[in-house]
Amino acid sequence: MMNISDQLTQKKLLEILMAAYKKGEEKENIRLVDLLEELKQNVILAIGEKD
Fold first, then answer.
1. 37 to 27, 31, 33, 40, 51: CA distances (angstroms)
2. Which run of H or of E encompasses 44?
3. Distance between alpha carbon 20 and the CA centroid of its chain, in Å?
4. What number of CA atoms fall less than 13 Å from residue 26's CA on the CB side?
5. What SS3 class is residue 30?
6. What is the pTM of this model?
7. Within-domain flag for 17
8. Please, which residues have CB within 8 angstroms of residue 3's CB and are 6 or more apart in sequence?
9. Quick check: 9 and 3 in contact, CB under 8 A?
10. What's the total number of domains in the chain?
């Protein structure tokens, strides 16, 4: 499996994207800006995590 960066694996990125997709599906009204901000924060957190 390819790493997107040293800390963010393809698998972790897929998990982040799937969580955002599910959140978008669950909520009737969600602002795109809020969804993108959450995606950004989750990627930043994943990159900052140490194995």
1. 16, 10, 6, 5, 24
2. helix 32-48
3. 6
4. 7
5. coil
6. 0.69
7. yes
8. 9, 10
9. yes
10. 1
